[in-house]
Design goal:
Chain B: GO terms for molecular function: ATP binding; ATP hydrolysis activity. The complex is a heterotrimer of chains A (260), B (262) and C (260). Chain B has helices spanning 48-55, 87-90, 97-102, 110-123, 139-152, 169-186, 197-203, 233-236, 238-251, and strands at residues 4-17, 20-33, 37-41, 63-68, 71-72, 80-83, 157-161, 189-194, 206-210, 217-222. With 262 residues, chain B is α/β, with parallel strands linked by helices. Chain B is globular. In chain C, helix 4 crosses helix 6 (120-141). Classes of the chains: A mainly alpha (260), B alpha/beta (262), C mainly alpha (260). Chains in contact: A-C, B-C. At the B-C interface, strand 6 of B face helix 7 and helix 8 of C.
């Protein structure tokens, strides 16, 4: 029954997607939107397929995805311990939060010109900026997960003779895990956005953003722009869906869904 | 002879579930006179809620008909109010108590709304709680707000779905007495669904006993405990004890020695 | 006394950090890292000059307008579609896909289609609408059955139902979406101005990059941080007011989504 239900839901979603492409096609063909720019999907979708066989494009794609994955990994490695620390030691938190509140609102894309000037156009520049941008959701989710920690769970563990560090590792971290995973979903989206932003803006670095920028300046290649944009969307969609599935698989016990 | 408020005729409802059709209620028939308080009691899961939701017009019955003061019910009638068991979800957390009570009164002038809400809140003893939010009140008080909201609407028929099942025993007694008092003062017609035998006898002018699902009316017992009832003396009286035994017997399917009143 | 101690603890670290920064940058004497006093000087010059009116006002104005439009469109559509399972079964995957496109990648397309100087507003609206829309749908779905029955029992009209019950129920989620959209709007404001605009903070960042004027660059970045902090705080205050009815509302726990 449920299988059938999921099936029909997926079918409906597919119908919706096809409908979206149809509207796009009609809008483009009838000249509702200038077809010169908004190429119809009948042109764009074959281009997607062609690009997937194009080495130049694939290199750009891989470069972007890799940079994003590294940025996410670094963000996790930095933000989870930092979040655990800030979440469990009050005075550190009180002291550091003012700094954090000041740093967080700076949009990382605003740092692009400065970073390019200072660090050059190598991949470490975009990774650094992506880490900066993507750090915050994990940091805050971990911190607030500790705030939401059920004191009864802590007391239970303490009553069984578990020490302070043991509580952190065996009670706090597992309770925080779903929240961390939710944070990672956001972090991935932000990191990907920052990486392509750097690529869009700097001439020298290989990546999706650079590819799209070049295609868009050669005016006849709008189909490549749209195709590459669609593919970037698919990567984001896939990453989000994959992480969500991971959440459902491992954190089914967490009915609340873990932060956002 | 008082006019008939509610007439339920040959009512039946079938749910379509994955295990095939399921009859919740079947061949149900009864009437409620104006000003009467009728309690419906039945074993859990017997379809009491389905009955109430059909009467309220929230679901369309598969068979039979419901009519409210002579008009067939098709969709939720205009002059009907419902008090649900789950007060915490039935009240709107973003509205103050006062605004919750005024909620169904849209379209009335502001002053009139405020006056009616104040009156209804006073009737349930909450005249001072108007500016609070529901979550600042205890469970029993929240259910009083829900009752006040229903009263402020001045319905011809008040439906109550296990209204006191989610509060503690002491509060439950208080709310039962509150209902009896309000009903004396305002002359409301009430159909109350419960699984609690004592409650049905204590509150009702008449008790309808339902069978197991598909539910139908097994018996209708008039309750002659008078207008003024008391938690201690009434519950200790012979009539009360006898009636509750009779209802309990009916619920367990024990054959009755004397014919049951129609 | 305790309050004083808390405030002191909070600001001591901040002041110490700034002082350290000053000392280190002075000692290092690196052109790329000007000391805070130099940045403050540059900031004083540009913030209180005609540049503010020429660049900050139009750019931030576009950002706020775009954000507001995306909020209105997102909430309206979300409330209308959120209560219909069928509608969302068809449209959900498409919306989710649109949200997954890294927002900065919209810039080349809109720049080519609409023109570099006027694409900022549509880019912001298109990029920022999805989080509000999808969060509102989520919130609208969460109306529990008892409230549905209560509303029906009191014979609410369509508009009363949507505005009086569905919208308030969805409001916490709506605010979470608005917060995400705000950071996306800020990102898109900067990126779209970096790539090409006749005015705006991003435009000035590029200008400063070309002139190798690092203190000015730092000053614009700090201004962006201040603006981001300001808008976030105002949104938080609005949220606190709008959700004052919530029993245990911790806006902090929901303010996780301000990366970028």
């Amino acid at each position: 029954m449920t299988g059938q239900r999921t099936g029909s839901r997926a079918a409906a979603g597919l119908v919706g997607l096809v409908g979206f492409f149809l509207v796009w096609e009609v809008a483009s063909r009838t000249g509702l939107v200038p077809a010169y720019y908004l190429r119809p999907p009948s042109v764009v979708l074959p281009t997607v397929v062609r690009l997937l066989g194009d080495t130049g494009f694939l290199r750009a794609l891989v470069a972007t995805v890799f940079a994003t994955l590294i940025a996410v990994a670094v963000a996790v490695a930095v933000a989870v311990p930092a979040g655990l620390l800030l979440g469990s030691v009050t005075w550190v938190r009180r002291a550091v939060m003012t700094l954090v509140e000041f740093l967080r609102p700076i949009p990382s894309v605003a740092l692009i010109p400065l970073a390019l000037l200072t660090f050059g156009t190598g991949p470490d520049t975009k990774i650094t900026l992506a880490v900066y941008g993507g750090l915050w959701p994990i940091l805050f989710n971990t911190m607030y997960a500790l705030d939401e920690l059920d004191p009864l769970h802590v007391e239970t563990a303490r009553a069984f003779g578990v020490g302070r560090l043991g509580v952190l590792g065996r009670v706090a971290l597992p309770s925080a895990a779903p929240f961390v995973l939710t944070g990672i979903r956001l972090t991935f989206a932000i990191s990907l956005a920052v990486v392509v932003s750097v690529e869009l803006f700097s001439g020298g670095t290989i990546g999706l953003g650079q590819f799209i920028l070049e295609a868009s300046s050669g005016a006849s290649q709008m189909d490549e722009v749209l195709a590459a944009t669609v593919l970037a969307g698919l990567i984001g969609y896939g990453a989000n869906a994959g992480l969500e599935r991971l959440n459902n698989r491992f954190f089914a016990w967490n009915a609340r869904g873990g932060g956002r | 002879m008082t006019p008939t408020m509610l007439q339920v005729t040959d009512l039946g409802h079938t749910y379509q579930s994955k295990d095939g059709p399921y009859d919740a209620i079947d061949a149900l028939g009864f009437t409620v006179a104006a000003g009467e308080l009728v309690c419906v009691v039945g074993p859990s899961g017997c379809g009491k809620s389905t009955l109430l939701r059909t009467v309220a017009g929230l679901i369309r019955p598969s068979r039979g008909s419901v009519s409210l003061h002579g008009t067939p019910v098709d969709g939720v009638p205009e002059d009907l109010a419902v008090v649900f068991q789950d007060y915490s979800r039935s009240l709107f957390p973003w509205l103050t108590v006062q605004r919750n009570v005024e909620f169904p009164l849209r379209g009335l002038p502001r002053a009139e709304r405020a006056a009616r809400a104040a009156e209804a809140l006073a009737a349930v003893g909450l005249e001072r709680a108007g500016r609070k939010y529901p979550w600042q009140l205890s469970g029993g008080m929240q259910q009083r707000v829900a009752i006040a909201r229903a009263l402020a609407y001045r319905p011809a028929l008040l439906l109550m779905d296990e209204p006191f099942a989610s509060v503690d025993a002491q509060t439950r007694f208080e709310l039962e007495d509150l209902l009896l008092r309000v009903r004396r003062e305002q002359d409301t017609t009430i159909l109350l669904v419960t699984h609690d035998i004592d409650e049905s006898v204590y509150l009702g002018d008449r008790v309808l006993v339902l069978s197991k699902s598909p539910a139908s009316v097994v018996a209708q017992l008039p309750v002659d405990l008078g207008e003024h009832r008391d938690q201690i003396t009434t519950r200790a009286s012979d009539e009360f004890v006898e009636l509750r035994a009779k209802v309990a017997g009916l619920l367990q399917g024990v054959p009755q020695t004397e014919p049951v009143a129609p | 006394m305790n309050l004083l101690k808390g405030t002191a603890q909070r600001w001591v670290v901040f002041v110490v950090a700034v002082a350290l920064w000053e000392l280190v940058t002075r000692a290092a004497d690196d052109v790329f890292f000007p000391p805070p006093t130099t940045i403050a000087e540059a900031a004083g010059q540009i913030w209180f000059s005609p540049l503010f009116g020429e660049h900050v006002v139009p750019g931030v104005g576009r950002m706020l307008l775009g954000w507001a439009l995306s909020g209105v469109i997102g909430v309206a559509l979300g409330i209308l579609l959120g209560r219909s399972r069928t509608a969302m079964a068809y449209l959900g995957p498409t919306f989710n896909f649109m949200r997954s496109i890294p927002p900065p990648l919209l810039v080349p397309f809109f720049a080519a289609t609409i023109g570099v100087t006027s694409m900022q507003l549509p880019t912001i609206v298109f990029g920022a609408v999805w989080p509000v829309l999808l969060n509102t749908v989520d919130g609208a779905r969460a109306v529990d059955d008892t409230k549905v029955d209560t509303a029906r029992a009191f014979r609410l009209s369509g508009p009363q139902w949507l505005l009086g019950v569905v919208l308030p129920s969805a409001l916490p989620k709506v605010f979470a979406g608005l917060r995400l959209s705000l950071s996306i709007s800020l990102i898109l404001m900067v990126v779209s101005e970096l790539v090409g605009s006749i005015n705006g903070i991003g435009n000035q960042l590029v200008q400063a990059q070309r002139d190798y004027d690092l203190p000015t660059m730092w000053a614009w970045i700090v201004l962006l941080g201040v603006l981001g902090y300001l808008f976030n705080t105002l949104l938080l205050l609005a949220e606190l007011r709008a959700l004052a009815w919530q029993p245990r509302h911790s806006p902090e726990a929901q303010s996780l989504a301000t990366g970028g």
